[in-house]
Amino acid sequence: MLCYFRSCVGTLLFLSLTGGFSASAQSPDAVNAPLREVHVDGEKILTEAQVVAITGLVPGAQIGRDDLQAAADKLVQSGLFAKVSYNFQTKLASVIVTFHVEESPRIPVYFDNIPWFADSELGDVIRAKLPFFNGTLPEAGATVDQAAEAVKELLSSHGLQVSLEHAVIANPIGEGNVQAFRIEGAALQIAKLEFGDPALLTSKPAQQHLSEIIGKPYSRMTIDLFLSEAIRPIYLQQGCLRVKLGPPELRLTGDPNQKLPSQIPVYVPVVPGKIYHWKEVHWAGNSLVSEFTMSRHKQFPMP
Question: What is the domain-level CATH number for residue 141?
Answer without folding.
Answer: 3.10.20.310
